[in-house]
Design a protein that fits this description.
single chain, 271 residues, alpha/beta, 8-stranded mixed sheet, two-stranded parallel sheet, 23% strand, ABC-Tungstate_binding, Substrate-binding domain-containing protein
């Protein structure tokens, strides 16, 4: 009787397992360090997993590295913030279905005493020209991220090749760059989201904001399955749809640090 009972119990358990919902394949997301280090993904993705059953593996790097992972088929979708690089990614056949997701802006930060005197300036390129002229310490991410690409465009607008003694290119993400800038008493360009997340830990102040050239839009783009047929395109599309849905956009707008909103959802903007 015991053997029969065990057999029946085993059959019942097997039947329940057979009826259980199959495990959904992992979604691999390459994204910028700003979305990770600001805490945004830690806010969004657990809710996404709870609602859909999909787990998401996040690979946080600069935009250049994230797009390269997409080109190599190492991820299912990307979330980045460098429009010119994203256009090349899509035009080159590596990405499909680009969608506006959200935006914030870049800001220039530096010592609270502001020895270079850039506080209150309205032109970010002219502020960088001032920093170079005074050989001020400037810490660059130097990693081909969206922030670094924006920084290089501002130096170009200023007509300057940043080779002055105080310029330090460190090849790091935004968080480490801010920490080093604070330690050295220097200046840097940062996205506002990471700045707000780190502000309380740094001996820095926001010195310049509001230049239209500092606008910082983010997109979410699927990696092209025609190039990489084994991608989890179905899961990637579920995540993309969720992020741009009314619900996902509301969650992005609700994300804040110390009462300050870090990103503004804008999926209603046509790509």
């Amino acid at each position: 009787m015991k053997r029969l009972a065990a057999l029946l119990l085993g059959t019942l358990l097997l039947g329940q397992l057979a009826q259980a919902e199959p495990v959904k394949p992992l979604i691999r997301l390459a994204t910028t360090t700003s979305t990770e280090q600001s805490g945004l993904l830690g806010w969004l993705l657990p809710q996404f997993t709870k609602e859909t059953g999909y787990q998401v593996q996040v690979l946080a790097a600069g935009t250049g590295q994230s797009l390269k992972m997409g080109e190599n088929g190492d991820v299912d979708l990307v979330m980045t913030h460098a429009p010119s690089a994203e256009k090349k990614f899509v035009d080159g056949g590596f990405g499909i279905e680009p969608r506006h997701l959200m935006y914030n802006d870049f800001v220039l930060v530096g010592p609270k005493s502001d020895p270079a005197g850039i506080k209150g300036k309205q032109d970010a390129a002219q502020a960088l020209k001032t920093l170079a002229g005074q050989d001020a310490t400037f810490v660059s991410r130097g990693d081909e991220s969206g922030t670094h690409i924006k920084e290089k465009s501002l130096w170009q607008a200023a007509g300057i090749t940043p080779a002055f003694k105080g310029y330090k290119s460190i090849g790091q993400g935004m968080g480490p760059t801010l920490n080093m800038t604070s330690e050295l008493g220097g200046y840097t360009l940062t996205d506002r989201g990471t700045w707000l997340a780190y502000e309380g830990k740094l001996k820095l102040a926001l010195l310049l904001e509001g230049d239209p050239r500092l606008f910082n839009p983010y997109q979410v783009i699927l990696v092209n399955p025609e190039r990489w047929p084994k991608l989890n395109t179905q899961g990637a599309r579920v995540l993309s749809d969720w992020l741009v849905s009314r619900h996902g956009q509301a969650l992005i707008n609700r994300f804040s640090v110390n009462g300050k909103q870090l990103f503004v959802a804008d999926a209603d903007k046509q790509a």
